[in-house]
Every structure is written in C-alpha cells, then in structure tokens.
Amino acid sequence: MKISNSELSWLEFNGRILQEARDKSVPLMQRLRFLGIFSNNQDEFVKVRLSNIIRSSRIKSESAKIFSGGYTAYCLLKIVNEKILNCQNEFAEIYTEILEEMAEKNIHITDENSLDEKQQIFCRNYFENVVSPLIAPVILRKKTEIPFLRDDFYFAVKLTTMKGKIRYALIRIPVSESCPRFVVLPKNNGKTEIIFLENIIRLCMNSIFFMFNCTDISAHVFTFVRDAYFSIDEDISKSLTEKMEAGLDRRLNGQPVKLIYEPEIPDDLLDFIAVKLNIKKDGNFMFAERYHLMRNLMDFPEICPATEKTESATPLRNSMLKPFSSIFKAVDKNDVFLNYPYHTFNHFIDFLKEAAIDPKVDSIYITLYRLAENSQVVNTLINAVKNGKQVTALVELFARFDEERNTGYSELLQKEGIKIIHGIAGLKVHGKIVLVKCKKKGYVYLGTGNFNEVTARTYSDFGLFTSDRKTVADAVSVFGFLQNIHAKLQTEHLIVAPVYMRNRFEELINREIRNARKGLNAFIYAKFNSLTDGEMIKLLYRASAAGVKIRLIVRGACCLQPQTAKYGDNIEAIRIIDKYLEHARMIVFCNAGDEKFYITSADFMERNLDRRIEFGIEITSPDVKQTLKDIFNIQWNDNVKARDLNNKLHETGNTVKLRSQDEFFRYFAAKNRRHENEEIKNMSAM
To answer: Looking at residue 650, what DSSP letter applies?
Structure first.
C-alpha cells in the first residue's frame, strides 16, 4: 500500500497556492496576497518541517528516522531543497508577471535609483520622520560575537572609508504597523508608484553612516530561518509559565538552518555573516532576488482600480438567530449550525455575551487555542466574572508561534479571577468547545476553528450550538477530565481524542467495509486539512478494495494516493484553494442508509488522533445533516477552484461553472429565505 511523503505532499499544496497567484481571473491585489501566503507558508515549512529533516539528517545511527514514504532524512533533504528552490523560482516568475500587469494599469514598483527629485525629497523626509528613529545600526567586528538576531530581515552593509579601511555593519529593517513594508509615493502625472521600505533606507545610507566619511557603501538584504523546535524544561520547581518563557527563549535562540541572501552580495561580506551566524555552506545557503520575506505581500496596499478590487461579501446572519434576541431560546428549539465566514462570527460573541449577563447562568467553561489580538472573547469572559459567573478557561500555551500571546492572555485572565487550566502533560489541547451551565440546563458550542474573530473572516469553519442534554452531560465530563486526568471520561455524542476518537472512526470505517462486502451501499465522504496518518490510510485503502466509495476533500498534505490499482481505485480526492482558507473538518458514513455525520477539530493525522485533545460531535439534527450534505456536494462539484492532488483542474462533467465559496453565500441566503417564509406561514396559520 503506497503512502506518500507528507513533506512533499505539503509542498504540492503550497504549489497550488502559486497557481492562484498565476490565475489572471483572480484580482491583482489578491494574487499578490496569494504570493504572500505562499511565502509565509514556505517560511513556516523551513522553520518547522525542514528543520526537523535537517536535525534527523545529522543522526548517523541505525535509529535514524525514516520519513513517510520510506525516505531517509538525507535523501528527503535533497529532494525538499530542490523543490523549495524550484518553487522560489516560480514565485519570482509569477511576481514579475504581476508587476507587468500592474504596470499596464499605471501602477509601478519603483526603487531608490528611479526616483525623481520630488520623490527623493518625500522619501528622505519619510526616512527622517518615520524610519530613522527605528534604525539601530550595529558595527560588526571580527573578534566579537554578533548580537542576537531575531528571525527577521537585515541589511548587511560594507563600508569603505576614504583611508581604504573596510568595515561591516548590520541594520534590521524595521517593518511594523507604523512603519509598513510598502510606501505609496505621491502621485506623479496620474501614475501610482510604490517603494519598498528597504529601498528608502538604501537611499539614506549615507545619512546613517555619515561619521565614517565613506567613499563607498554597499547594502544587501539577507535573512535567515531559525529552527523552530520548542522544548520545555522538566525542572519541577518552575511554574509552567516560567517553563514556557524558557522554551520560547530557546526557540528564539535556535540554530539558523537557512541563509537567504541577494546574489550581488560581496563574497567577503557573505562569508563574514555566515561565520557569525554559524551557518555552513552545505545546502543551507540560498540566494533570492533583491526582496526577501515576501510574506508582507499579504499586507500590500489596495491601490488597484475599483474593477480590480477583491469583492468582500458581507457575512450573513443565521435566520434562526434574530438580532437582539436570546440565542439560548433559539437553541432550546433547534440545534443551530454556523459556517464561517458565510455566517457572522458575531453570533458566537453574542452567545458569550448572553452567558456573561444572564442571571440563570452559573458558570462558563471554554478551551482557548489561538486568540485574536485585543480579543473580544477574552473581554467577554472577563465581563462574565465581573457579573458573578464562575469562568474556567483552558489556555493552550503550546499553540505553535502563539505561545507568547497565549502566555500573556493566561496571566491576564488569571488576574481577573478566571480559573486557568493548562491541560494534560504531553497532550496539546486543540479541540474547541464551550460549555455554559445554567441552574437547570446547559448549552454547548463545538467548533472546528479557533475562537478568533479575525481569522473567522477568512477561515472557513463549522460551529454548532446545542442544548441536547446528553451532549451537555458529555461536555461536563470533558471539562472534568481536562481538570483531572484521573476523572472518568464518559461521552455519548462527543468523541474525544486521544481517548477513543481513533477507535470510533476505525469502527465506522470497518462497518462500511462489512456492508460493502454484503453488497450494501457503502461510502465515506470526508473533508480534512491533512490526511497523513498511516494506519487510517491503510484502513481507507482496505475500504476501497472492499468496494466502499470514498470521496475526500483534503486542502493540505495528503499521503493517500487515490485511483491507484488494487487499493485506491474507489477513492477520489480533491483540494480547494480560494479566497478563504478551507479549515473545516467533516465526515459522513453511509451506514447502510442511516447516514452518520460528524464535525471535528481533528484531521486524520497521528498527532491529532494520538497526541492531542480533540473534539468531534455526531450530528443528530436532520436540518444540520442536510446542510452538511449540501456543503460537501457543493464543494465536490466545484469546477473552478477545485483541483486533484496533482493540482490539475477537477473535472465534474458540468459545463456550468461552479465556484463553491461564492455558491455558499447564495446557498445560505436562500436557506434563510426559506426559513423566514416558513415562519411567516406558521404565524399566519395561528
């Protein structure tokens, strides 16, 4: 049974994002942002996955790690480095194409050598008033260590004085919200021009080093990526917060694993920087064009004509949740399903606000994984405490790259009187669940995405409100378990990893296999972010071989190979990349005609099923079941943004173009109208 390599599959997914950047039907500004997303993804890949391969490649013993697909670390490292370079070359090609198209619309990227006199004056004034206070040059000396450098991008500067003396210096390029990467210049004859921040700094190099009387100054951008491996001190005398801070410090000081530099940098300057950073020339050097850290393209100014702007649809209300009315009363009548960003995240905030002030509410329990800056969720929880509610929050301190923010929120919530728990040693709590307990009843919200009002605008996720008594009892058991690992965990509707989620889904897949062998209709439809767990893949292959029809929508890495002889010929798989990040997870089992539906925070990955606390729920509402079936069918019939796992357009046989993310707004608007018409009919019949 063939299992693909997850790292290589992930790179294929990131290559799919490049396709969106190349697609001329996508608005120009959105194409630039796709380049930014690609670059951000690539940076994280290098920090985490590539770093892991590099660490493993240094192990020479027989216990050296073998990666999925049967690759040794040394072999995989060569292939991955080659693919990264190829993708970077493709990125540069697409970026050039986009710049040419922008030029046709009289929008230009300029540099310090192409400025007229007025523009130079503007840039020098901008440097003096905005940039200069943030500049802190460091003179480098051969006998002294380089100061600590964060993962960022810098100028390596070579100074030649009038006496012929060579000096080296370092300048961090200070990109921030108040000092953006892209500066729009005053319009000149109707032409829009944008300059990179680093080019303004290049223009003013003489102003920075005026005291050296230089005959020549050459400045070259470079960046590097540190190993993002995060380890925790086992010292039992330290608090978890102290351990987290120490772990973050070790990450910040992790070994640089890749140096990226301008090809024009002088050899002596490059060698000097490499020695200071302790980076060896063994495949860890990579040159790029003049501009680095292009993830900032996600923040490129919106300066295209109106016809080229990305249309941003307004999130809909769910018609079951009326403005300025009780969400609790609505959920008492029916389970309520939300699909962000097509539905507004304000519904969730309103749910918490109601819980914070309703006299019948005794306590609120919530798991927090990734939160927005200035989080409304946090503010509402604090308000609940001020209103006399008991609030318990599990804050996951190990949410990768959000550890520092979560540690800060944890301390803030604790100071405000909220009981903070930090989960179970060795198990990251990734599941998203809220329990609101009243005097005689309770309410549960379970989601596939974070309680984050910012990402809810761009991430496609599911959420479910329910007042089902069995589910409420399940949630009580879950939070008891999270606070005391020795507590008995018993659930009926909620499925929890790593306790029994794997077993539950294995049972359901095996049931489909048995039904297929009996000649009954059997299928599995699933939507994941990633599918890399070897045992689940083998089981799906066995299901396929037995005749179970399997359809998969997998956005990211997928180690299963569909439509392969013997094992995968009953499996089809697609991925969808579009305006919104596909982040929701769902699974549907035929179950001999009595279909079972689940939404879950977990992917079919070993880490999700075995090393994380995850939550899923069986859907019992007929209306929500039908909605999930419609959602899957709409995405499966997408013939605009859907691709197979080789990034080839998904052929549906339908001549009518269907773009699922646009269709969902129409679908939920129509669903609202039907619900409102039914309410009018019911009122008329009274």
So the answer is: P
Q: Which of 471, 460, 466 is nearest to 345 (CA)?
A: 460
d(CA 61, CA 78): 19
SS3 for 187-211 is: CECCEEEEEEHHHHHHHCHHHHCHH
What is each CA distance from 604 to 539, 586, 600, in whole angstroms?
Answer: 12, 11, 10
In this structure, is the dihedral angle defined by the CA atoms of residues 636, 639, 641 and 646, taken in order, positive or negative? positive
* Contact between residue 195 and residue 183 where contact means Cβ atoms under 8 Å apart: yes
422 is catalytic: no
Helix (H, G, I), strand (E, B) or coil at 127: helix
| 256-261 vs 285-287, strand pairing mode | parallel
**Better-predicted residue by pLDDT, 286 or 455:** 455
- Residue 602 burial (10 A CB sphere; 0-12, 13-18, 19+): buried
H or E element, residue 515: helix 501-517
Contact 57, 68 (CB under 8 A): no
Could you give the angle at the alpha carbon of 398 between the alpha carbons of 174 and 454, nearest 5°?
A: 60
Which residue is catalytic, options 430, 493, 583, 650? 430
Q: What is the pLDDT of residues 332-346, one digit of tens each?
A: 999 999 999 999 999
Let me know the angle formed at the C-alpha of 593 by 592 and 596, rounded to the nearest 5 degrees.
90
The continuous run of DSSP H or E covering 672 comes out as helix 660-685
What pLDDT band is residue 234 in, cutting at 50, 70 and 90? Answer: very low
Q: Assess contact for 548 and 516: CB atoms under 8 A.
A: yes
State pLDDT tens for residues 399-456: 676 677 878 889 999 999 999 998 777 889 999 999 999 988 999 999 999 999 999 9
Pairing of strands 256-261, 182-184: unpaired
Look at residue 514 and tell me whether its pLDDT is greater than 80: yes
**Count of alpha carbons within 13 Å of 405, Cβ hemisphere only?**
13
- At 356, phi and psi to the nearest 5? -70, -25
DSSP letter for each residue of 23-85: -TTS-HHHHHHHHHHHHHHHHHHIIIIIHHHHHHHT--STT--EETTTEEHHHHHHHHHHHHH
* Rg of the chain taking only CA atoms, in angstroms: 27
Return d(Cα 296, Cα 292) in angstroms, integer. Answer: 9
The dihedral of CA 267, 271, 277, 283: what is its sign?
Answer: positive
Q: Is the Cβ–Cβ distance between 167 and 161 less than 8 Å?
A: yes
Q: Which domains does the chain have, with CATH numbers?
A: 1-104 (1.20.58.310), 113-311 (3.30.1840.10), 327-486 (3.30.870.10), 501-660 (3.30.870.10)
**Predicted structure pTM score:** 0.86
* pLDDT tens by residue, 664-680: 999 999 999 998 888 88
Q: How many CB atoms lie within 10 A of CB 214?
A: 19
The helix, strand and coil proportions of the chain, stated in percent and rounded to the nearest 5, come to 40, 25, 35
Q: Which of 377, 557, 348 has its CA nearest to residue 448?
A: 348
- Gap between the Cα atoms of 363 and 374, Å rounded: 23
The values of phi and psi at residue 60, to 5°, are: -100, -5
Which residues lie closer than 8 Å to 196 by C-beta, 6 or more apart? 109, 111, 181, 182, 183, 291
